[in-house]
Each structure stands twice: as structure tokens, then as C-alpha cells.
From TrEMBL:
UniProt xrefs under Pfam families: AAA_16 (PF13191)
Matches recorded under SUPFAM superfamilies: P-loop containing nucleoside triphosphate hydrolases (SSF52540)
Boundaries of every Orc1-like AAA ATPase domain copy: 47-224
Organism this protein belongs to: Ditylum brightwellii
Signal peptide (residue range): none
Protein name (database record): Orc1-like AAA ATPase domain-containing protein
Length: 225
């Protein structure tokens, strides 16, 4: 991995450097002692190996999002530890450079009793990014949300902490999400919020990890959007 890169600082400078790194395990064995060692044998964390086809497939779907196809869903499956999350997060970095909004959340088996908690965390992260994007972006986001949600935005500010900062209001006590009518209203508000912040000119990609642990309310929201 360090022989091929074109940039000199990221590759071996001589055959002797390669030999020294490869010889260190022998040194440890001969001395019956393993000392702390930070060598040059390491792989870059920003490069994917053997994932070009999967990367292209995901990027193709993301790039065809427009007003005619307002939403798309991509399911990335595979055994645990095969690099699914790494692949999608790599895509996220590419999309952000292209001006696409990217946010993520991770479902947890122990959080299934808290409806929408993972999606709430994901959008809390999104609004945190909005707050760091400058006053023009904040004002534009605030205007879009008020237009789409009206007074309903107050409900969402009580469960999405950083939305309070975007809307310029003080945080109130968080609410517990109830069932039936309350959850149906909340689902409607989330749908309206997503429609307001995800536009053809600036799409939103939401990455939800470990979908097998999603609660029913989250699955219903995903299905409806």
C-alpha cells in the first residue's frame, strides 16, 4: 500500500525501509520481547479496496435524485464486519464535497422502546451542521421550515435539540413520544420537515445503520418518505 502511492510522503523511500519494517517481527521473536513499535507498515484509512462496483452503484442512485424522483432507497446488506458502514460513510464524504447534505444515525437493539430516537439523533446532527454553515444557510433553513411546518415546528424543537438553535428559540423540556394520534402527527411533521430541507438543488442523504434494530415508528416513517 505504501509502495504504490505517487505522493512521496506516503510511500517507502527505499528498499531498505521495506526490509526494516518486515524484519521487525524477527527481532521481537529473537529477543522474546515485544516493544512498542510504530513503523511504516500501515494502510491509508481513506481508501476502499475491492468496492468500486458497489461505490459506483450507490453513486449512480444518488446522482439521479431530482424532482421527478423525489426519493430513493438503497439497502446495503452483508455479514457483520464486511465494511458496509465504511463504504457508505466513504460515499458520504464524496457527496458532501458535491454539495449534498449527508447525515447518519445508528439503530440500537436497546433503544427500540424509544420511537424515532435514531432518526431524531440523525437530524440533530444535520441541524448541528446547519449551525456551522453560516447565517445565510441558517436563515434559509429557518424560512423553509416555518413555511412547511408552521406552528408544528415547536413540537420538533422539543425533541431535536439543535433545531432550537436554528429557529432561534429557547429549548423547552423534552417530550415523550406517545402512541397513535401523537405518533401520527409526529410522523407527518417529520415528513414535512424532510420535504422542506431536501430539495432537488440540494438533496439530503440519510444513512441509517443497523436497520434490523429499527423501531416500528421509524420503519413507518422510512416507508412513507
Amino acid at each position: 500500500a505504501l509502495i504504490e502511492p505517487k505522493m512521496p510522503p506516503r510511500r517507502y523511500q527505499s528498499v531498505n525501509e521495506v526490509y526494516q519494517d518486515l524484519d521487525h517481527p524477527n527481532t521481537f521473536l529473537n529477543n522474546s520481547e515485544i516493544r512498542p513499535y510504530i513503523g511504516k507498515i500501515k494502510f491509508p484509512h481513506d481508501k476502499l479496496f475491492g468496492r468500486n462496483d458497489h461505490l459506483s452503484s450507490i453513486m449512480n442512485v444518488c446522482q439521479r435524485m431530482n424532482s421527478a424522483r423525489p426519493s430513493e432507497m438503497i439497502l446495503v446488506s452483508g455479514h457483520s464486519g464486511t465494511g458496509k458502514s465504511t463504504l457508505v460513510n466513504h460515499v458520504g464524504k464524496i457527496l458532501v464535497k458535491m454539495g449534498v447534505n449527508f447525515t447518519s444515525g445508528k439503530f440500537d437493539q436497546l433503544q427500540q422502546a424509544k420511537p424515532l430516537s435514531t432518526i431524531i439523533d440523525a437530524f440533530d446532527g444535520y441541524f448541528s451542521e446547519v449551525m456551522q454553515s453560516g447565517q445565510d444557510v441558517i436563515n434559509k433553513t429557518k424560512t423553509s421550515l416555518l413555511k412547511a411546518l408552521g406552528s408544528g415546528v415547536g413540537v420538533l424543537t422539543r425533541i431535536i435539540p439543535r433545531l432550537c438553535a436554528v429557529m432561534g428559540i429557547s429549548a423547552t423540556d423534552p417530550v415523550q413520544i406517545g402512541v397513535n394520534d401523537a405518533q401520527n402527527r409526529l410522523k407527518y411533521l417529520f415528513e414535512s420537515m424532510i420535504s422542506a430541507i431536501a430539495t432537488p438543488s440540494q438533496p439530503l442523504v440519510l444513512f441509517l445503520d443497523d436497520l434490523q434494530w429499527a423501531d416500528i415508528s421509524s420503519l413507518q416513517l422510512i416507508k412513507s418518505t
